[in-house]
Write a structure and sequence with these properties.
With 383 residues, this protein is an alpha+beta fold. It is built from twelve helices and 17 strands.
């Protein structure tokens, strides 16, 4: 084809079929920042207020988190200043007088009868404990050695599990814990002692460690140490059955609470996110393929807690928990490349302590008297 034929074809191309569209340039970081701000501004115009961190509304929560990040970044604020017609990124004007500062003091920190520098509620002297717990060799360790051997065997066989420590109320005689990587056994818990500094009762324990030492730690001190990465060891299934008045051969199932380990920003922006589910086997078996299942958001999960129950009731308990926490259900879909990959029907923005409290109320058959308040994250008695 010579040049004349090519020019003739171009001249006769009335529909522009031979014209190549000009490719739009890729958006710059500045373009993306401006687009993100405009989305926040549009929300503010529609609702008459800036977005708030509402854990039950994932879209608004993301906008509020984005606005907070913009406000804390001086460079982003400088770039967006020409677009900030609504004043979303402006710093509040500082008070010009002491009177203005006190008038804008909602918590009364600058006013009142006491001087600003008067220390309140601070003890003038500190009371030292009568006894300081130290580890020392356990002279009767041979009486406990087999308990540690059996506990390790139960852990290897899956009859016991290591779970996060939750509350000092879990510390009871005959239970195992892991403190600083060392297995310990609570051999005894003494009579409660009134602890003025803790405004409650305390008790001195005798803890035997698997390395042959012991310590008479106060119950609350042991609890504080376990909070720092300590673990509790669950009791074997057969002991759970005895406490429930069931036969040792009763088939068991699980109700579990999970936390997502996903690095997806959509997941990271949701605080207190937990999945409540059930299985006729164990939580470990149910989650072994979590990364390939959309119900687990296609990511690894952490087992926060597992409650062993007689097989056949696990689904009913799960349904009760789902109904109770329905106001905090994350009703959202995660998309990748425009395709829905996960639906969060079993995920709830609820503190774990509240879920654990609900399980206790189910055991006591008192759950029907409570409702869930998403604003406070707590259970409330029905009016």
């Amino acid at each position: 084809m010579d040049a004349e034929e090519l020019l003739q074809m171009l001249g006769e191309d009335e529909f522009g079929l031979l014209e190549f569209p000009v490719k739009a340039p890729a958006p710059t970081p500045e373009d993306r920042l401006a687009s993100a701000y405009e989305e926040i501004a549009e929300f503010t115009r529609q609702h008459g207020r800036p977005p708030a961190k509402d854990s039950t509304n994932i879209a608004e929560f993301k906008l509020a988190t984005r606005l907070e990040a913009m406000c804390s970044d001086d460079e982003q604020r400088r770039q967006l200043e020409p677009l900030d017609e609504l004043g979303l990124l402006r710093e509040p004007e500082p008070p010009q007088t002491v009177e203005e500062a006190i008038a804008d003091d909602p918590f009364g920190l600058l006013g009142g009868e006491n001087d600003l520098f008067d220390l309140q509620h601070v003890p003038k002297t500190q009371t030292m404990p009568d006894t300081i717990a130290r580890r020392e060799p356990a002279k009767d360790f041979e009486a406990f050695r087999q308990l540690f051997v059996d506990c390790h065997a139960d852990l290897r066989a899956g009859r016991r599990k290591l779970l996060a420590f939750k509350n000092p109320s879990e510390i009871e005689q005959g239970k195992f814990f892991v403190l600083n990587g060392v297995l310990l056994y609570v051999a005894s818990v003494g009579e409660p002692e009134f602890a003025k500094s803790n405004k409650g009762n305390n008790a001195r324990t005798r803890c035997i460690f698997e390395n042959g030492t012991e310590a008479d730690l106060l119950l609350l001190s042991l609890g504080r140490n376990l909070y720092k990465g300590g673990k509790r060891v669950t009791v074997p299934d057969n002991k759970t059955l005895q406490e429930m008045g069931l036969q040792p051969n009763t088939p068991m199932a699980s109700v579990y609470v999970l936390r997502s380990l996903s690095s997806d920003p959509q997941v990271l922006e949701l605080p207190g996110l937990h999945k409540i589910g059930s299985t006729s086997s164990t939580a470990a078996k149910r989650t072994v393929h979590a990364v390939s299942e959309t119900t687990f958001l296609g990511a690894p999960v952490e087992i926060v807690e597992e409650y062993r129950v007689p097989r056949g009731v696990e689904g009913k308990i799960e349904q009760m928990l789902h109904r109770l926490f329905a106001p905090a259900r994350i009703d959202a879909w995660f998309e990748r490349d425009g395709v829905t990959v996960a639906e969060m029907r079993e995920w709830f923005a609820v503190p774990f302590r509240t879920i654990d409290e609900a399980i206790g109320l189910i055991e006591n058959e008192a759950i029907v008297n409570y409702t869930y308040d998403p604003a406070s994250g707590e259970l409330r008695l029905r009016q």
